Amino acid sequence: MAKTELDELNTNIYDFKKKDDYAYKMKKGLNANIVKEISKQKNEPEWMLKLRLQALEIYNKLSLPDWGPDLSELDMNNLATYVKPKSEQKSSWEQVPDDIKDTFERLGIPKAERDYLAGVGAQYDSEVVYHSIKDELIKQGVIYTDIDTAIKEYPEMVKKYFSKCVPLADHKFIALHYAVFSGGSFVYVPKGKKLEMPLQSYYRLNSPESGQFEHTLIVVDEGASLHFIEGCSAPKYSKINLHAGCVELFVKKNGYLRYSTIENWSKNMLNLNTKKAIIDSGGEVDWVSGSFGSKISMLYPMSILKGDNSKTEFTGISFAGHGQNLDTGFKVVHIGKNTKSVINSRSISKNGGISTYRSFVYVMKNAQNAKCSVSCDGLMLDSKSRSDTIPVSNIQNQSVVFSHEATVGKISEEAIFYLMTRGLSEEDAKALIVKGFSNPVSKELPMEYAVEMNRLINLELEGSIG
Amino acid sequence: MQKINKSPVLTSNNFGINYFFVENVFEKLKPFKNFKITNCDTQEKEPENITYPICEFSVRPNVCKKLCLNESTAKVEFNLDGDSVFNEQKIEVKSGLKTKIIFDFSAQNSFLFNKIIFDLKEESFCDAVFVINTKNTNNFLNFESVLQKNAKLNLTFATFSNTKSIFNVFSKNLGENSETNLNTMYITREGGKIDLNLFVQNIGKNTKANINSNGALLDSAEKSFKGTIDFLKGAQKSFGAEKEYCVLLSSGAISKSLPMLLCGEEDVTGSHSSSSGKLDENQLFYLMSRGLNKKEATSLLLKAKFNSGLKQIFDEELKNKILEKIDRSVYGKSF
Fold first, then answer.
1. Sign of the dihedral through C-alpha A263, A264, A265, A271
2. Which residues of B touch A389 (CB under 8 A)?
3. Does residue A299 contact residue A328 with C-beta atoms inside 8 Å?
4. 3-class SS at A411?
5. pLDDT bucket at B235, cuts 50 / 70 / 90
6. Domain boundaries, chain B
7. What is the pLDDT of residue A98?
8. Domain boundaries, chain A
């Protein structure tokens, strides 16, 4: 069957640049003085500066991982770790400077806020420039603010949770994150409060040769419920940018959190993000993850099922195109009894892209009657690409039910043939099959985001088969 | 500690599966002659005008023979007792020839290192079975194979041990339509550790790789399975499937697994599945409702789990020996 080979589409709705205009840009490099300067700029308490410096020491001691994609391109001496935009944080879009506001307008954030969100945070480079939450939620005790404000206004709560889910020495890039983190969101949903509309934080990195290190900390108290959406993008530059964010999630007894992410970083970005959730008894965290952009991604969200009867589900898709190496997956640790996890991952690679699914399932000795089901499928759209599956399990309890299934291969020729007999062109048939392949993820997203994800898939596909 | 049996592709060291760590278990080799070779001629020198498969057979430092593998199944039996042995075999099957060979190892309080190389020429076929029954014996088995066009290798090994058992297989399906089938069965008990590192590369077109692993862990035994099927670019229309099933018969057992698929070619079909856990309680209940006691039911279900591997063992006597070992393990008797 003839294959369609066209040049990759290089236009992208996310790839528009604004002038590199800032109030303050840290000089490139990483050392104790730079860390101290970031802390000073933020007027932080002493304990936070101490934590940052401790993290820097750990960063310097740890070596680069000897597995996964090659990170030798990363040189911290060529990156600015802190870029302060020229605007302070506002709670009205009207007060946000025009060029920054225009950026978020083009990304559809204010419209989304008007239509279906309960609150929005928008970060531009290293600082949050806009944050708002509906008044009625504030009255009900919901806290949704940027992390810097939380450190000042809710110090005890931040101290109790900050770095307790993802420790400083977890890996080299989380140590880097803690040394230079800036921006991000803090959410607290009080006991029994169920938010019907989602909250969304959006991260935009505009400045070239810089890094974004936002920290997201979410606490969902007993019986509460939240849907949190995270979006990220950046324009493309010729030199490397770095994203090393951190997400810490705490879900208390019978709480529920859905954490949805659509990452569409530019293809000069190294995305070395860390996300982890600790889930108490009866609690549940569902992850929905779409990874499209970046040059290299190493992203493995993790759920720790600490309490009895806690649950987690991961539904993820990644799409690696030309020049991309997306090493993604999921990790789960079963500690409590009767815990349950479901992992469903899809990856697509085309035009020389490399997709790797990497996972870890750990069922500890006391996790009686744990259940875990893993399914991962890789779809290759041409022979220039790669699709690898590297799943690890460590089962230490006899009563567990653990199963893992995976497949890898190309689009079925029979399926294409069938659709062509129904009147579709070969290209349309392939596109339809790819959309069907990604359907388990898109159906888990709110409709507007599912449409957005399908649009991203279309953009990626148009280059090779559309 | 030494790092051995390295995974073909590394993942995070925190996952504890990239390597097998051993203390210095390599012991000084001693001359060894307690082996028996049946069903084939042996010669000291290279025979001329070979029309049959050859096995270069050496037991270091004192034995070196040529086994002429005729149409009957050759059988090599080792009996180690307080020995330290390094064996090396190279099995060469010339174009169009077929052979079957059995290696049956019994060892106690010993150390065993075995290296086996298969060189399968075009249109050749080799069916090799290794049964390793050890007590207080660390054993390392290392297999390498290269298959030319239309060659087929069936490699089956069954191991019963209570100490360290390390297996490393690296098979290259080089020629078109070549096929490697790996079948492993194991029962590990007490503080035994088994580390399986099975790697098949599909290089030629229309090549096939099948990896099947079935096992059971008792007491505080630990298993680490690394199975890899690697589709290299150009291996069009190739097929690869991995199945790994582990039964945990004790609350202290640990099962680690890494079934990898590496794919650099679009036009292939690859799949893997793995599962770990105890025996199905409904199946046990059903068998017990038909009059079997729990141990009998457990043994029967284990035999069913091992059936896909057992089918590959063409020697009835050996098959019965393995079935007996399954019974003995369930009843808590030594292998």
1. positive
2. 260-263, 272
3. yes
4. coil
5. very high
6. 29-278
7. 84
8. 22-299, 412-466
Which of B249, B258, B267 is facing A392, going by the closest CB pair?
A: B258
Of the candidates B34, B37, B84, the residue with the CA atom closest to the CA atom of residue B57 = B37
Using an 8 Å Cβ cutoff, are B119 and B154 in contact? no
Select the residue from A393, A399, A403, A410 to test the B interface by mutation, using most B Cβ atoms within 10 A.
A393
Instruction: Say what angle helices A426-442 and A447-462 make with each other, to 10 degrees.
Output: 140
Q: Exposed e or buried b for every residue in A275-314, given b needs 16+ CB within 10 A?
A: bbbbbbbbbbbbbbbbbbbbbbbbbbbbbbbbbbbbbbbb
Residues of B with CB under 8 A from a CB of A: 9-13, 15-18, 231, 233, 246, 248-251, 253-278
Cβ contacts of B217 within 8 Å, gap of 6 or more: B187, B188, B189, B223, B246, B247, B248, B249, B250, B253, B254, B255
Q: At what angle do helices A32-41 and A172-180 cross, to 10 degrees?
A: 50
Tell me what percent of the residues of chain B surpass a pLDDT of 70.
Answer: 98
In terms of pLDDT, which residue wins out, A20 or A192? A192
Q: Which of A6-10, A159-163, A236-240, B35-39 has the highest mean pLDDT?
A: A159-163
Q: Quick check: A292 and A318 in contact, CB under 8 A?
A: yes
- Give me the half-sphere count of Cα atoms (radius 13 Å) on the Cβ side of residue B87: 30
A contacts of B257 (beta carbons < 8 Å): 392-395, 404
- Cα gap A186→A405, rounded to integer Å: 37
pLDDT-derived band at A10 (thresholds 50, 70, 90) equals very low
Task: Answer for the pair A380, A352: CB distance below 8 angstroms, yes or no.
Answer: no
A25 has a pLDDT exceeding 90: no
B277 to chain A, minimum CA–CA distance in Å?
5
Q: What is the DSSP letter of A65?
A: P
For A353, nearest residue in chain B (alpha carbons): B264
Q: What DSSP element (H or E) covers A97? A: none
Across B209-236, b (16+ Cβ under 10 Å) vs e yields bbbbbbbbbbbbbbbbbbbbbbbbeebb
Cβ-contact B163, B136 below 8 angstroms = yes
At residue A450, does pLDDT exceed 80?
no
Q: What confidence tier does B25 reach under pLDDT thresholds 50, 70, 90? A: low
Alpha carbon distance A206, A25 (integer Å): 12
The predicted-structure confidence for B164-209, as pLDDT tens digits, reads as follows 999 999 999 999 999 999 999 999 999 999 999 999 999 999 999 9
Q: CB pairs below 8 Å between A and B: how many?
A: 133
